[in-house]
Automatic annotation (TrEMBL):
GO terms for molecular function: ATP binding. The chain crosses the membrane at residues 17-35, 47-65, 72-91, 97-120, 127-143, 179-202, 265-286, 325-346. Residues 396-644 form the ABC transporter domain. It holds the Pfam family BPD_transp_2. It is a multi-pass membrane protein. This is Branched-chain amino acid ABC transporter ATP-binding protein/permease. SUPFAM superfamilies: P-loop containing nucleoside triphosphate hydrolases.
Amino acid sequence: MSDNLTALRRDLLRRDALVLVVALALAAFAILPGLGGDPLTISRSQSMGSIGVALVAACGLNLLAGHAGLISLGQGAFVAIGAYVSAWALLETGLPWPLALILAVAASAAVGAVLSLAAARLSGPQVAMITLAFAVMVHRLFVELEIFGRLAGYPNTSNHDTSLLDPIKIGGTALEPPLFAGTGPLVMLLVGLIAVLSFLAYRNLAESAWGRSLRALATNEIVASHIGINPRGRKTAVFTVAATFGGVAGTMQTQLQAHLQPESFTFTLSLNLIIMVILGGAGRLYGPVVGVFVLMTLEHSHAMQSIVEFQQENLSDTWFLSEEGLTGLLLILTLVFLPSGLVGGAQKLWRRFRTRNTPAGAQPDAESLDIDATVRATAQRQASCAIDLDEHDEVMQLRDVTHNFAGLKAVDDMQLTLREGTIHALVGPNGAGKTTLVNLTTGVYPLQAGATAHILGKHANGLPPHAIYQLGVARTFQTPQLFHGESALVNVMSGLDAKLGQSFIATLLRLPKVRRLEAEARHRAMELLERLGIEEHAGTPAGELPYGLQRSVELARALASDPKILILDEPAAGLNPSETYQLGTTLEAIAATGVAILLVEHDMSLVIRVADEVTCMERGARIYHGDAAGLQQDQRVLAAYLGDGHVTIQGKGSRNA
Ligand SMILES: Nc1ncnc2c1ncn2[C@@H]1O[C@H](COP(=O)(O)OP(=O)(O)OP(=O)(O)O)[C@@H](O)[C@H]1O
């Protein structure tokens, strides 16, 4: 354990050091040439400034599109709003410059929040469409609005040699816009500083429980809501955050250009930003940094222009790909050959290199046991330990629950009670309605009028999955639903993130409390992995783990929130006998800590071995409720489920199920 923790700590320190190096490199890139005394050339300032602007906008976009999976084609519109509103506020309102910039960023954020109210209801291509329409609308708005000078731009002057914007002053020193004064190192200082601070804020969000929740949302909304994330609330938040980064980029653009033209903010800007994110690696921390530098270097080094000229000279001077066409081609090639972008591709290579050079870790114990003999021996030992269910408090009561799917009665007037510290098995033939009942219990489907659900003394009718999670209910799924790109450790951490109670501002600033909670969450997740015997796989991406281990990671994630009620949907499916036996032992150990377990399962040897109480369903209705011994004698159960040839296994039994 301590070795693992030390390795984790070392890994964290390495990541922190890398962030610091990147931030310093960004700062040096933006600031040093200006402070060296050499006047910045106009084109140099333009290149460096535009890289800073694009970086900030792309970082925000990566949170939205890369981490949360909401592809936005409208990030350029928020840059436009930030730029125009900051120019207007500097010129017209007489506000001190910091307030003028804050006003502009707030305007972008507010518009983003309004747009998110619509976008948060949607997903996938619909979000892309809505943001595309928004980008076109905003561009047209700045083309049409008299106050912003229409096509002539803003401020509306034909004399572009001097800026109409009052230069920003810091301590009496004016920050001349470099395009006009030719140098403007202080402007570059300000722009560089904003870029670095924005990058750090982006990193703080991405590398936190908040960032993990975005990636969970992107992978599977239903699963995310079962680990306490409110999908709509989180989508609204990330939309607003991305718009805020866009607004910040816009205020930087104003400082660099001083004269704004609508043509700088066409849909192409939004398209370029999403290309940068995808090229660098959507959802990867350094994706936007790499994407912005590569694409902008290609543009500013005139490499693109050279390729266009090459085509014209050697192929055809009428049929050739323009610079924009080449950028589009780059996007297509990236999506086809490098879907995880340059950073993702490099990480994959690195992992392959490391696995090749690391001795294989111990595999799970595949030693085959004589399960039948073991089960019978355990069952006989336990038969004498029948428990008195009345001594265990009820923690969940479901009454009169019915659910129809387009005329099919999947659940028919079901009753179910779970008791603290006991295992209640829910069995029945395929299609009996077990999973539907679980989904009704955890809020995936609403309960019909007349049904009641009480969970830990609270009325739970109408509560969505994330609210049911907060009551103390955790679940697993019929097929393991892990976040495949994340390590096993991060998957387990995500199970307790919603309970950490980290505020957004504290996360943004990475306050000491956040760092402490993050370390504790890691520690707790490692403990759980160790408890399930899979700690050596902590750093492996969940998607690369064998099926049985994925089930264990999912169980650890469910346990991470310290649930009072644990619902497991066919946890033994796909496990070998040895793994199933270990699972049974684990479930008994969990129940012994006071957790109520609802076990949906077809493996009768497991059910009979561990269940204190059994409910059998057929065609949506309850046909049996009692102990495991009674289940095997019940004529309806034998006819509908177990079959006449069922060999009776002795189980735990209970005195009054
Ligand atoms: N989303 C859905 N839309 C329509 N019908 C559904 C839906 N989900 C389940 N059903 C139907 O409802 C019935 C109950 O299905 P459910 O998955 O709850 O059964 P189950 O007991 O969990 O089965 P299994 O043991 O195979 O998992 C089945 O007839 C199934 O086809």
